[in-house]
């Protein structure tokens, strides 16, 4: 059974699209400022954790503000820079609208200055639509359960609602995590408790994660991620307006606007995209080999993308990627790509290591025989 079925509240507000987003430089925190602390009955951290595990979500609609200031290097060739593209969520401020009406009806709309991108899930049908490119893709579920956030063209690395961000945070709760209570707050006009998660391992680049939990509905209204040593969030996703009434069914009906180019997506490709890579190299259609070293906050993902000098099926794309990599500084055994919340190491032997850890930890993991992937 899917974890989203057994724990529906932890599947973000829009299950069809639902899957770290940041407020930087202090400005974001002020923009999403909350009112004076409400006077709420005391609850322990354990009680709030139970609330999150047992809450039920029948319907929801609202506006979400997502902010990201990860301190990423300027590599436009690798990162999306269009405000209405879902890939743009890695940087800046974004406004999204969400609707949810049970596990079979959900919608997300990313509103940009140059257009919008929508994902609509209704029963066995899932649509993605981009107004700027006037294109749409249609996915038809045919039996096996599919999750468009993991198997479609939607980037799932960044959470796009407080529910999804809370789900990611709660996965890390184990003996390596310190859990405490913060100050109560008023978010989107609603009273909320605050739960604070802190990693005990000093190798983690994350200082703390703050969850604002609705006092009545027991659902996350805001999630903030702070880098170690910072007092302002490096990631924030929060409701600015929310209703827990079920939206009208018309919100989940998508009719492609005139002039839209519609592509019927291959469900076989969608299912294959979610499979765990099992092979080494990329020749003859093989997938890159990967593994995870460590657990919890300081786990490191390792993938071998190919041997040095291995030919690419698309030389132009290979050159574009290599030029971007060459812009990265050398250090700790390869090219490094560091942000406030995570680090990436690209080694000379064709491996990529990434995690919410210090560059030094990545270098240590790279030397581990278990991460050789030979």
Total of domains: 2
Q: State the CATH topology of the largest domain.
A: outer membrane lipoprotein receptor (LolB), chain A
As a whole number of angstroms, the C-alpha radius of gyration is 21 Å
| Overall geometry | globular
How is this structure best summarized?
The chain has 374 residues and is an alpha+beta fold.
Provide structural commentary.
By secondary structure, the protein is α+β, with helices and mostly antiparallel strands. It folds into two domains: 3-268, Lipoprotein localisation LolA/LolB/LppX (outer membrane lipoprotein receptor (LolB), chain A, Clam); 276-371, TATA-Binding Protein. It is 16% helix and 33% strand. The chain has helices spanning 3-6, 27-31, 45-54, 148-151, 162-170, 267-273, 315-326, 359-366, and strands spanning 60-69, 91-100, 105-112, 115-122, 125-130, 135-140, 177-181, 185-187, 190-199, 206-214, 220-227, 235-243, 261-264, 289-293, 300-304, 330-331, 334-338, 343-347, 351-355. The strands form two sheets. Strands 1, 2, 3, 4, 5, 6, 7, 8, 9, 10, 11, 12 and 13 form a 13-stranded mixed β-sheet that branches. A six-stranded antiparallel β-sheet has the order 14-15-19-18-17-16, covered by helices on one side. Strand 2 and strand 3 form a beta hairpin. The protein is globular. This is Outer membrane lipoprotein carrier protein LolA. It comes from Dactylosporangium maewongense.
SSE topology:
Elements: H1 3-6, H2 27-31, H3 45-54, E1 60-69, E2 91-100, E3 105-112, E4 115-122, E5 125-130, E6 135-140, H4 148-151, H5 162-170, E7 177-181, E8 185-187, E9 190-199, E10 206-214, E11 220-227, E12 235-243, E13 261-264, H6 267-273, E14 289-293, E15 300-304, H7 315-326, E16 330-331, E17 334-338, E18 343-347, E19 351-355, H8 359-366
